[in-house]
Structures are given as C-alpha cells and as structure tokens.
C-alpha cells in the first residue's frame, strides 16, 4: 500500500508514533482535529486514519465515540501504544537548566513526581508535539517539552530524561479506520467486533439486550453509554465484543440484541491486537 495515514495532532504526536509503528510504508498526514482526520478520509487525502479511543490512565478519548458512528468509516485494526514520556530540550541544555516543561494538559499530571523532584514548573500546551516544536523554535535552555522520542527526532531536540511518567502502565488504544470494511480476515489472536446501538423504549430493554451475549458465551470487553444530541433521555451505547459476526454464537447474540434495539450499527470487524493476550 502506498499513500498517507491521517492522525490528529502534529508530527511527533503519539498518534504519529502509533501510525509509524503500524504502517511505516504510509506518509503521515497530521490534522488539527479529529473532525479534520475524518474529512481527510472522506476527501481521499489519506488511505487510513489512526484514532485514539481510550487510555489506561485517563479513560476514553473525548468526542471519538460521538464521531465514529456518523463518520462513514470502518475499523479495520487496533493497536496499543505504551506511552513513554520524555523530557526534551534544545542542544546544550542540561537537566539543571530546565525551569519549565510544556505539554498537553493530560500529560503534565502523569509526570508530577519527576517535575516536583527537579523543581520544574509545568506549562500547558495545546499538544505535546506542538510543545516540542515550540521549544525547538524558541531555543531557550530553560524550557523543555514532555513528549515522545519521535518528537525529539522530528524537531531536533535532545532527550534529557526518558520514561519519566509516574505510572508504568500508561497505554493508549488506537483504532485504524478505512473507508471500506474488511470482513474476510481472521486474526491469529481472535477477532473483535465493535458496534453502537440504542435500546427500544421498553422496561429492562438494556438488561434483556445484554442477555443474549451471556447465554451465547460471547465476551463483551467494553460497554459505554453516552448522551445523544444533548438529550438526557436519548442514550447510545458503544460496545466491543470478542468474535466475528459470522461466528454462530455471535450471530445469535446480535440477533437477540436487534430485537431489543431501535438502532444497531457495526463500526468494525477486525483482528484482536496481540497485546490483548
């Protein structure tokens, strides 16, 4: 495959790192927002999109669940990226020079211990890769960025300290999106199916809808609800299950689900990432 893979953020972002690891043959296409990523796919500016969906430290990524059902895109793979946070500075700077560390609001608390130990003030930046770019352009020895090793390579910065995150389990799950579904594959470590649904307005509808997965032995690894169109009475559910819709037990479970739902949309059928095992 030749072409581009779109992601949200600037060059050097963790989404860029995930894209480079999974599809090094594709040129990275940075986009300002998640909506811009989807638009790039619709306009055929890219062949694939890399979208973060959840993180082990701070939970689900805002807006993704809302955007995916209406995007017209299909999940064709997943990947997990261990997020290593590094302290990046301009050439010639040492750790003792650093007074301020710039990064995304989400990353700063994850390095609170390191920053406190070294007397470094955290400063909020719109994006960790943007922070790295700004530090490189400013050229100040007192300023550093908290970002990926890839960002250091992209912007020509030195890594003064590696893997400074407080927790050693910080991992982000990404979904790889395509314009067309790919239902023919069978993964070596199993298959995943992702879908969204709305239950019918009848008593215990959600309880009854979920019963089919239990009775048919289908493992549901994720079930999340979120508001639709700002209404407190309209709820949509996002779910991940193990298996393929063609598997007899999965087919039976989905048939039962359809009986109790007013809307069901499969977002993707894809091989389970090896990290799940």
UniProtKB/TrEMBL annotation:
Specify the Prephenate dehydratase domain's residue ranges: 4-179
Q: Does the keyword Isomerase apply?
A: no
This protein's UniProt keywords:
Amino-acid biosynthesis, Aromatic amino acid biosynthesis, Lyase, Phenylalanine biosynthesis
Q: Which residues form the signal peptide?
A: none
Give the highest taxon in the source lineage: Bacteria
EC numbers on record: 4.2.1.51
What InterPro entries does the database record attribute to this sequence?
Answer: ACT-like_dom_sf, ACT_dom, Preph_deHydtase, Preph_deHydtase_CS
Q: Name one GO cellular component term.
A: cytoplasm
A GO BP term here is: L-phenylalanine biosynthetic process
Q: Give the catalysed reaction(s), semicolon-separated.
A: prephenate + H(+) = 3-phenylpyruvate + CO2 + H2O
A Pfam family that this protein carries is PDT
- GO MF entries: prephenate dehydratase activity
Q: Which NCBIfam families match?
A: PRK11899.1
Q: Under which name does UniProt file this protein?
A: prephenate dehydratase
